[in-house]
Amino acid sequence: MLFALFLLVPVAAAAAYVTARQRATALSTAAGQRLHSRPQHHGLHSALWVLIAGWGALIVLTVVGEALIQRVLMARISDALPDEGPLQWNLVLSDARSFAQGAVSSEMDPLRERIAGAFSWMNGTRLWLTVLATLGGAAAAAWWTYKGITVEARARVQSETIIRRGLAVMATVAVLTTIGIVFSLIFETVRFFNAIDWQLHKFLFGTTWSPLSGVFEGEMDADKVGIVPLFAGTLMITLIAMLVAVPVGLFAAIYLSDFANHRVRAVVKPVMELLAGIPTVVYGFFAAITVAPLLRDTGEAIGIRVASESALAAGLVMGIMIIPFISSLSDDVITSVPQSLRDGSLSLGATKAETIRKVVLPAALPGIVSAIVLGVSKAIGETMIVVMAAGQGPNLTGNPLEAMTTVTVQIVALITGDTEAETAAGPAFTLGFTLFVMTLLMNMLAQRLVARFREAYD
Amino acid sequence: MNDMRLIERAVDMDDIKISARDVQVYYGDNHAIKDVGVDIEDKTVTAFIGPSGCGKSTFLRCLNRMNDTIDVCRVEGDIHLDGEDINARQVDPVQLRAKVGMVFQKPNPFPKSIYENVAYGPKIHGMAATKAELDEIVETALRRAALWDEAKDRLDTAGTGLSGGQQQRLCIARAVATQPEVLLMDEPCSALDPIATSQVEELIDELRANYCVVIVTHSMQQAARVSQKTAFFHLGNLVEYGETGKIFTNPEDERTESYITGRIG
């Protein structure tokens, strides 16, 4: 019902557009002079106001009405059951609601039936009010804008203002969401640190990660929340991945931009970008089922013990996953270094290799560094490959042939595990926050380095 | 134009530096240069003039094999530098370009310091054993390019931060620093204002003492001012080649005369 109403508003807006445009055209003909705004601007102005009034009324009444109903009913329930707590009141309310909507509720009693009746009536009223307000608002907006169509009316300027504000609202939404996420991270992190009495050194430098081991006693054991094994795993696997991805990606980019002829380029570049489209879960089982056993068997053959889940397998496959990001971005920046710089170098008797090393790469450096930073962020954030190929055990080891785990994998394990979400959220959010701070610092460092070494060519 | 001065200007030497015969250039299917043959003298400024698209820049780029960098470009014919065929299999274009320097239409300093820009070629060719020697090469080159006085206090600042005219003189200094024998200039003043242009022109005149200079220009006044020999290109053909004074005052071909007097172009 409400959804149909939601879709009806744009239809009304379209009608308002056509009507307003026709009226403006007629007015222009009748007055025999040019309007300040062209007919379609009057149409747009009318349609925008219909959308704002219709959707605005719909959303405000839905949200406010829901809150109001909730409040009134809760007040009645709490009056009827003064001895119970909010948990019980909520239960009564949700039972009454499902009963009113014809679903089966866990238990029924006179109070619940009374509340259900009240809910039915209030909800029905709200629905009709919403329909009336939405259609009324849309109609009023259409009427008001229709009346406002005159020769001098500045419909174009006004609708441009509305659109500009709409764009600003969208931008604000994106920013506010980010801020909201960061704040919820900080909030949960503070709660977690309270639980371990702010023994930050144990968190940052502890070598045992088993945060849920004391959960049944209802407390967090500060000696078992050391993140060192997780970050060691993350750094090890990221390092292996970058050792694969940076040289392969960068050299591939140099080949594509400066050596390959356009026919090779036209084939190789899209195929490489295809690699970026493979879901990481596929890379994950490729790592677990093909690469890890291969490494283990090879190790056995030459007498080295390789665990069947190893950081090396995960890192290698993750590196392959990251190659297209680095090669494609680097290729773009290397290609955009002006040919005139290459010509300048070649005309001085420099070889192609000298030209690339001394002129092209320094000029492309900022872009190459951002490509690498993007690759590192991908590697740090990657979860699926590690879950499948490197295991979940928080081992603290420097040996890439052993099973290791990463920060992201532990977050997954916490959230999807059997423990109640409330309890697991603390450590999970804290890990997330630490990861966020780490990548932020890394980005800032990279930008500093670039600012210092860049050779700007324009 | 001061015609009298042009006629009286003497050509210093009769030594042939570059000799081209039957040069053809194709861009894919497009026959851009047709049967061009020309003898370019040492210690002389030779100007290539002609309307846009006539092939003068393309021909200039044949002289240091810069056309090699263009995929679809194909060059045929003989071009000899000091009697040696530059398109021969055993000639390394890298070595050739060390001998035949080039200055481009748009100033293209590297995004490095002024010093590094000039030192780039000498470093690559191992021309200086010590820092002091390199300093000297850089200073000499900057002096030759009449940029030393303006740049000596800011050698460590970016070459791209100079003005357009200074950038172009920096590019000339950069080309001169590798001690080439021939200096090719592809419309070196087209991106410069009149003051910078006259500075570069003076410079070209001074460079003549040490180098064989070939300059492509759109400006006939410029050709008349700086060159001793002029070649007129039209639609990929070399129409007329001779003493600059004669080309401008008494051309033999009527196409040259039409161009000089502004009827085609």
Structural features, described:
The complex is a heterodimer of chains A (458) and B (265). With 458 residues, chain A is mainly alpha-helical. Chain A has helices at residues 2-31, 39-80, 86-100, 110-147, 155-195, 200-205, 228-259, 262-275, 280-301, 311-335, 339-347, 352-381, 384-389, 407-416, 421-453. Chain A has 2 domains: 2-153, no CATH class; 227-453, MetI-like fold (Orthogonal Bundle), CATH 1.10.3720.10. The radius of gyration of chain A is 31 Å and the shape is flat. The model of chain A has no long low-confidence stretch (mean pLDDT 90). Chain B has 265 residues and is α/β, with parallel strands linked by helices. Helix content of chain B is 37%, strand content 25%. Chain B has helices spanning 3-8, 56-62, 93-99, 114-124, 131-144, 148-151, 164-177, 194-207, 220-226, 244-249, 254-260, and strands spanning 16-27, 30-41, 45-49, 73-81, 84-85, 100-103, 182-186, 212-216, 229-234, 237-243. In chain B, helix 4 runs parallel beside helix 7 and helix 7 packs parallel to helix 8.
How do you describe this structure in short?
With 458 residues, chain A is mainly α. Chain A has helices spanning 2-31, 39-80, 86-100, 110-147, 155-195, 200-205, 228-259, 262-275, 280-301, 311-335, 339-347, 352-381, 384-389, 407-416, 421-453. Chain A is built from 15 helices and no strands.
For the largest beta-sheet of chain B, the strand count, sense and barrel status come to: 6 strands, mixed
Q: How far is the N terminus from the C terminus of chain B?
A: 19 Å
Broad shape of chain B: globular
SSE sequence of chain A, one letter per element: HHHHHHHHHHHHHHH
DSSP strand content of chain B:
25-35%
Question: Which shape of chain A, going by the Cα principal axes?
Answer: flat
Unreliable residue runs of chain A: none
The protein's oligomeric status is: heterodimer
Structural class of chain A: mainly alpha
CATH architecture tag of chain B: 3-Layer(aba) Sandwich
How many E strands of chain B?
10
Number of strands of chain A: 0
Strand content of chain A: under 5%
Ends apart, CA distance between termini of chain A: 58 Å
Structural class given helices, strands, pairing of chain B? Answer: alpha/beta
* CATH fold naming of the largest domain in chain A: MetI-like fold
Strand order of the largest sheet of chain B: 6-7-8-3-9-10
Helix content of chain A: over 70%
